Amino acid sequence: MVTEIRGGTILPARREEIELHTADGLTLVGELALPETAEPVATIVALHPLPTAGGFMDSHVLRKAAARLPALADIAVLRFNFRGVTSPRGTSEGTFGHGVDERHDLAAAMAFVAQRGLPNPWLVGWSFGTEVTLKYGLEHPIVGAILLSPPLHRATADEVAAWAGSGKRLVAIIPELDDYLRPAEAAERFASVPELEFVAVEGGKHLWVGEEQTYRVLTEIVARLNPGVLPLPREWD
Q1: Mean pLDDT of successive 10-residue stretches along the chain, which has 237 residues
Q2: Buried/exposed 216-227: b ≥16 CB within 10 Å, e otherwise
Q3: Apex CA 26: angle with CA 22 and CA 29, to 5°?
Q4: What pairs with residue 90 in β-bridges?
Q5: If we measure between CA atoms, which residue out of 76, 152, 140 comes closest to residue 104?
Q6: What backbone phi and psi angles, to 5 degrees, belong to 188?
Q7: How far apart are CA 52 and CA 85, in angstroms?
Q8: How far is residue 168 CA from its own chain's centroid?
Q9: First and final CA of the chain: distance in angstroms?
Q10: Which one, 79, 82, 99, 111, has least CB within 10 Å?
Q11: Count of CB atoms within 10 A of residue 202's CB?
């Protein structure tokens, strides 16, 4: 039976509840979703929005990436709760680190990626997750990073500029109607990275609410990680 892929759709995958262990002694909870039968061609390490504003590993774009992309694009998706964050998966130990202590959380996730031999890792940060990505992503062996709705509140101009010439791809997906950073200002603040892949999304909003905005974001992600499978199906048999 062919069914339409909607907000609550969960497509087949091998899903495993996992734990990450940080250098400062915390245990974080998460999930790894792998293609059901194939080996993954690339890996998403998902960094969620601001914990103090309700962000967690199930924030909808990241949850939908894990629900769909292993099946639709042969992509592995690793999601986890930053320190002190609770979701239905459980609670990560510790307390909110204001984008500083989360450096250890990212490092723990990348150690897990290395341990499991997950291929071609990309960081996909959303809002607060983009700050952790920009500040600390260059410390790790990644292919690149995708920034969804980057507010550029915590990442400094020098931290942004450090991506220039790094050899790691950087993609900024900027909603036209963002609450914090809109395309014109974003273009100025990312000008220090000439190789940046800049995507302004007409009608887009910070939270990417609605199936059309979700579909656009997931398409932009897959266009970097496994473009040969595009366009993404809107139905599943």
Answers
A1: 94 98 98 98 99 98 98 98 98 98 99 98 98 98 98 98 98 98 98 98 97 98 98 96
A2: bbbebbbbbbbe
A3: 90
A4: 87
A5: 140
A6: -70, -45
A7: 9
A8: 16
A9: 6
A10: 111
A11: 9
